[in-house]
Design brief:
The chain is of the alpha+beta class and 482 residues long. The protein has helices at 4-34, 47-52, 57-64, 90-95, 99-107, 130-133, 266-279, 296-301, 320-324, 343-351, 381-391, 403-409, 427-431, 450-459, and strands at residues 68-73, 113-121, 125-128, 139-142, 148-157, 162-167, 189-194, 202-213, 223-226, 238-241, 246-253, 261-265, 285-286, 289-293, 310-315, 331-335, 338-339, 358-365, 368-375, 377-378, 396-400, 417-422, 438-442, 445-446, 464-471, 474-481. The chain folds into three domains: 42-279, Thrombin, subunit H, CATH 2.40.10.120; 285-379, Pdz3 Domain (Roll); 383-481, Roll (Pdz3 Domain). The protein is built from 14 helices and 26 strands.
Length: 482
């Protein structure tokens, strides 16, 4: 006969078991929706935590080095597609005839050593940067034990600069365990391992200097900044935390500064890798709208207590937003249950959402909140190319002025182009352009729409552009340098 206390304990145990079972089923469903993990999660290993209690870099280095690889290529052409001016990688140095490669020829270093990578699956799956292996005829992966294997590209995503390779080795390979980059803290110790300048398995140590860095490389920038030394050849290598888990993929360094290295958060890779493995590419969600950040003045006009969400400045016909009933002038404040604060945030949320699945969108229209259902499409390369035509090199996202935009911004006419977004640190940002500005002239020539704007920009042979900008009923001239 159980006592009352024992019966309570038994009931609690049963309830706990049911909750755990439900959580496991939920997580299983989520995994199937996003793609199954084929790597090893660091949380499954406790022995590492026990050993690292000694807090020595020596023990940590011994444990993590075997999973780090050197990547060589026999042909490399294009430079890093995501590296803004001032960033270094082996390809850029080689194209410029840099002194680094001249010295290597005399010292016997392999001239085609491209970068680094790390093994994430014992069957030979290797993660690296996409720019390390793009436009190559042959890729060779060299393990820490000296063995070399020819690799093939399984999948690549240029937008985040991530690639997945596969080698065929005899037997299981050592793997790097993937951690949780969201839990990474500023000031935390990190270790970078790679092959800088051809010096294999070099280890550098530093701290996390900052998170969420936007470098203007793509709308999906979210870099970890570290002062752990990262040099040409480190690209694609892992950034470890003190538990021995990968928290980032080393990608770029600013040539003009010291202690400014950048790594892609590993959680971004974990989102993308399953699709790279199964489909060879990452399918991003596509909404089909032009959007602009909400200014203080726009927020007041719409009866909002503060600037939040993004304003729809244009809707592409026969695209998901158009079919869902989203209109010019709508303010998107939530997408799929997530709060939207600015253009970059919405771009990331949409891109990471599942395509061909219904998503709830909360908008403000004529001062009232409404909820719409949208089925996202797949972002196409053609649309991306069109979007980049104006932005490239300037850091501007532009759109035509529609009747709804005129109404919301209280414009007198539809002549000019609307500045939908400005990339931080870009030429446009340095010139003083802001989201919500209307460009009326380019080099003293009036522009009525995007077509005329592009024509005026192409005709200009100067190193700078003189824009007449209308902002809140005021006109001003701004100079944008190339």
């Amino acid at each position: 006969m159980f006592s009352r206390r024992m019966r309570c304990i038994v009931r609690l145990s049963i309830a706990g078991g049911v909750i755990c079972a439900l959580l496991m089923l939920w997580m299983s469903g989520y995994s199937e929706a996003r793609g199954k993990a084929f790597w090893v999660e660091g949380k499954n290993y406790s022995k590492v935590d026990t050993d690292i209690k000694l807090n020595t870099f020596v023990i940590l280095a011994k444990k993590i080095k075997p999973a780090v690889v050197n990547i060589s290529v026999t042909k490399a052409s294009a430079s890093h597609p995501l590296a803004p001016r001032g960033f270094l990688d082996p390809f850029r140095e080689k194209e410029r005839g840099g002194r680094f490669f001249e010295k290597r020829k005399h010292r016997g270093f392999p001239p085609d050593s491209a970068g680094s990578g790390f093994i994430v699956n014992k069957k030979g799956y290797v993660v690296t940067n996409q720019h390390v292996v793009e436009n190559t005829e042959k890729i060779v992966v060299k393990l820490s034990n000296g063995k070399e294997y020819e690799a093939k590209i399984i999948g690549e995503d240029s937008k985040t600069d991530i690639a997945l390779l596969k080698i065929e080795a005899n037997g299981d390979l050592p793997v790097a365990m993937l951690g949780d980059s969201d839990k990474l803290q500023i000031g935390e110790w990190v270790i970078a391992i790679g092959n800088p300048f051809g010096f294999e398995h070099s280890i550098t140590v530093g701290i996390v200097s900052a998170k969420g860095r936007f470098l203007g490389a793509s709308p999906y920038d979210d870099f970890i900044q570290t002062d752990a030394a990262i040099n040409p050849g480190n690209s694609g290598g892992p950034l470890f935390n003190m538990r021995g888990f990968v928290v980032g993929i080393n990608t770029a360094v600013i040539s003009e500064g010291q202690g400014l290295g950048f790594a892609i958060p590993v959680n971004i890779a974990k989102n993308i890798l399953p699709q790279l493995k199964e489909k060879g590419e990452y399918a991003r969600g596509w909404l089909g709208v032009s959007i602009a950040n909400i200014t203080e003045e726009m927020a007041k006009e719409k009866g909002m207590d503060r600037p939040r969400g993004v304003m729809v400045s244009g809707v592409m016909e026969d695209n998901p937003a158009h079919k869902a009933g989203i209109m010019d002038g709508d303010v998107i404040i939530r997408f799929g249950g997530k709060e939207v604060n600015d253009v970059r945030e919405l771009q990331k949320i949409v891109a990471d959402s599942l395509i061909e699945q219904e998503v709830e969108v909360s908008i403000i229209r004529e001062g009232k909140e409404q909820k719409l259902k949208v089925v996202l499409g797949k972002m196409s390369e053609r649309v991306i190319a069109l979007a980049r035509e104006v932005e490239e090199g300037l850091g501007l996202s532009l759109s035509d002025i529609t009747p709804r935009v005129m109404e919301n911004l209280k414009l007198e006419d539809d002549h000019g182009v609307l500045v939908a977004d400005v990339e931080p640190g870009s030429s446009a940002a340095k010139a003083g352009l802001r989201s919500g500005d209307v460009i009326k002239e380019v080099n003293k020539k009036q522009v009525r729409d995007l077509k005329e704007f592009r024509e005026a920009m192409k005709k200009s042979k100067k190193e700078s552009f003189l824009f007449l900008v209308e902002r809140q009923d005021e006109a001003r001239y701004l100079v944008l340098k190339k």
